[in-house]
What does this fold into?
Amino acid sequence: MKRQLIKHVLTRRDYGATVTVAGWLRSRRESKGGFSFLLLNDGSCLTELQVVADGTLPNYTDELSHLTTGAALSVTGRLVESPGSGQSVEVHATEVTVHGEADPEQYPLQKKRMSFERLRELAHLRPRTNTFGAVARVRNALMAATHQFFQTRDFVCVHTPIITGSDCEGAGDMFAVSTLDPEHPPRGADGCIDYEQDFFARRTFLTVSGQLEGETHACALGRIYTFGPTFRAENSNTRRHLSEFWMVEPEMAFADLSDDADLAEAYIRHLIQHCLEHCHADLTFFNQWVDQGLLARLAALADAPYHRLSYTEAVDRLLSSGEAFEFPVEWGCDLQSEHERYLTEQVFAQPVIVTDFPEAIKPFYMRLNDDGKTVAAMDVLLPHVGEIIGGSQREERLDVLLERMALKGVDPEAYRWYVDLRRFGSVPHAGFGLGFERMVQFCTGMQNIRDVIPFPRTPRHAEF
Ligand code: 4AD
Ligand code: MG
It folds into this structure.
């Protein structure tokens, strides 16, 4: 079927032209003169196209006059200047084909608004709602903007593995991948499970980050980025944690932490500008229905400078704030969401980059600072979402890396290939990971991360 997208038809002014559109019926209103107004949405944009279906159409009485919300239709007709307010064009149908009806007794998406919680149970149908259609389009725009940003800066996109034997973040919260029979796994003489007999003849997991593998290509191609799914088996039930989420991880050779922070700022600004430019209607919708501060916040952050300060300074700021935090602050603690948001929303009222965290709370690969107590790490904090990016300069000195591995209980044999990068042509290098869903949250104002990924995976939830 040759059809035009509604978003294109709505901008046309060549009245009289014949157009064909197809989509799902949002509503039908019967008018006195024996005809119906059909509001059609095809997902190409937020706005519905108004179709006038005349009572003289051959299938009007039998089919069209019974149409209900959710039915799938294609319409051929004449483009007409719309007399009604709210739209500039409409289509006067000469032919309407009904592809699939939607029984109003059963179809759950009726006119009345549903809670986001309820819609999560309808993840197969929720993209047909205004909100989730808009989320999907903004998410797509952010993905396109990501590739555009890195491609125009000569970063090479690298696909790092999803199944891996390494634990990048060292937190141990990984999903195991195995084809062994869970009821009767083969056991060795010592009674332990014999992974030699597993599919990969070793223990394997779903990756928590593509970084370690990404570094191999940065230390060959210079500048790379990954964009892939990552998995964390942590039992976090918050509005900003998923068990499966997407991460964008650039990595640059011949770069230090300050280059890394510069790249992070430029990337986030680019994402926001791209969204403002390409998703105006969807953002306006979010601003009206989801988060009334959204457009102002995005506009303010499209060019905003970022405040950079060290972890030690950040802790001082939090301690002297007099604020009663749920998690008390002291030097050495990890910053919690409430601390992050307090810094970026209250103290500085701008994006914040916290650098140089205590080495004790960070993974083995981060570069040890001269003070011996902190590492060259950074977290980028945005209002509304808190930590959006985690990154660091990587430890490029072989002896220091081996010491750090020993200290953290990481077996250098298992990471021989990673250590090799420091033995052969080692260079200062740095990179970061941006949590893609948190960025979608930031750009849409959506409160819960489960509503910005099509099929959220969280503890105890993996339907669909
Ligand atoms: O801070 P993280 O754990 O950093 C890394 O994994 C590094 N290896 C990245 C790198 O340097 N290449 O995760 C990076 C970002 C966080 O800042 C956050 O935005 C997001 O990933 N993130 C999550 N998003 C949703 N659900 C979760 N459970 C997340 N965990 C981290
Ligand atoms: Mg982090």
Observations:
- DSSP finds twelve helices and 16 strands in the chain.
- The chain has two domains: 6-100, 128-162+217-451.
- The first strand starts at residue 18 and ends at 31.
- The domain at 6-100 is CATH 2.40.50.140 (OB fold (Dihydrolipoamide Acetyltransferase, E2P)).
